[in-house]
Design brief:
Number of helices: 14
Number of domains: 3
Distance between the termini: 50 Å
Strand content: under 5%
Strand order of the largest sheet: 1-2
Largest sheet: 2 strands, antiparallel
Radius of gyration: 24 Å
Shape: elongated
Length: 355
């Protein structure tokens, strides 16, 4: 019994190090995206979150390992500064694993550290979605569990949970699956990064590599998205149809397909796809098809119906100032003079940025 328990502790320790790396990767993806999006890193809310993260990390290591105080850099912090603290923490945990420490105590300390990372990742992820509508893939569950439900899950682990994973006979299979999922997520993230930098052919390559690893409605939609940016609307529409066939409940390809038709001048035909997108069960950015339906009504000159669609979009995305601004202008012009409505700037335009 003692041998089995020691082996489970040993295996759990190595699983924990993998989860520490996964937590680091997830948080670093979030930080990279925030700093890539213009202006997000300068907001007071994010500055406060990043400062608190460094304070908590330093407090954690001072309380558990060091007796000497750790010097903290004063803000403002950039991505490399925050990344340095994360790398140092993961490196320290990896180094401790090589010492002959009490396994149970190491698991407790390591889980506390991993959970601290995920707590801060949860706050930054929520800020990113609320401020920009942009998203970052969640970590694979692996040896994690969902600690809290809500608009976004908060992930965590525990020594008991790690031991259960280590003792399970199928954990090697899960680990291989996790590696495949990790590679898929990396290509998806690289594709998003390439889109942000307007490197659309490179983005398409990344999304196609993700499809080869795991064919999902998400990856198929993203490949179509890249084709759309390249003006290749027929290929873009074909990828959307493949995505819908892969998962009919996934909303973004319906919306994107309608958008490509709209750009091609097939305005009436596009509306049926926006309607289907509204009904799709799986859709994070549910306001997009309402925005695009409003664009159809504007093109038809049905301005009051356009106002109704923008109003629904605003209810779904109350923090989107661009929708609010467009709706305010549109309402004012409806009240004043319908003949001037052709000058209203319609935004956002095109397929969604975060399927």
């Amino acid at each position: 019994m003692q041998i089995s328990e020691n082996q489970d502790n040993y295996d759990a320790k190595h699983i924990l190090l993998g989860e520490s790396q996964a937590a680091f990767n997830y948080l670093d993806r979030l930080l990279f995206t925030v700093f890539e999006m213009a202006g997000l890193a300068e907001q007071t809310e994010f500055k406060s979150q990043s400062q608190q993260m460094i304070l908590k990390l330093v407090d954690f290591w001072e309380a558990t390992i060091f007796r000497l105080p750790i010097r903290q850099t004063s803000g403002p912090h950039n991505h490399l500064t925050l990344q340095r603290y994360l790398k140092a923490g993961h490196g320290l945990l990896s180094s401790l694993a090589s010492f002959d420490l009490d396994e149970a105590e190491f698991l407790r300390l390591g889980c506390d550290y991993v959970n601290l990372l995920y707590a801060h990742a949860h706050g930054i992820h929520y800020y990113l979605k609320q401020s920009s509508g942009h998203d970052v893939p969640f970590p694979n569950l692996g040896a994690l569990y969902v600690k809290t439900e809500g608009p976004l899950p908060c992930f965590a682990t525990s020594p008991e949970h790690l031991r259960d994973c280590a003792g399970g006979g199928d954990f090697l299979v899960l680990s291989l699956e996790k590696q495949r999922d990790k590679k898929y997520a990396e290509y998806i993230a690289r594709g998003h990064k390439s889109i942000l930098h307007k490197s659309f052919p490179l983005a398409l390559q990344h999304f196609e590599k993700a499809i080869k690893i795991k064919t999902t409605a998400e990856a198929l939609t993203l490949a179509g998205w890249a084709h759309g940016f390249l003006g290749q609307f027929e290929q873009a529409r074909n990828y959307c149809l493949k995505a819908i066939s892969n998962n009919p409940d996934y909303g973004p390809p319906y919306n994107d397909l309608g958008t490509y038709l709209f750009k091609e001048g097939r305005i009436d035909e596009s509306m049926q796809w926006f309607t289907l997108a509204k009904r799709a069960p799986i859709y994070d950015n549910r306001e997009f098809p309402y925005i695009n339906a409003a664009r159809v009504y504007l093109a038809r000159g049905e301005y009051e119906l356009a106002v109704a669609e923008f109003t629904k979009a605003q209810m779904l995305a109350p923090f989107n100032t661009e929708i609010a601004g467009t709706l305010e202008k549109l309402r004012a012009l409806v009240d004043k003079n319908k003949n001037k409505l052709h000058s209203v700037p319609i935004s956002p335009e095109g397929p969604e940025l975060c399927p």
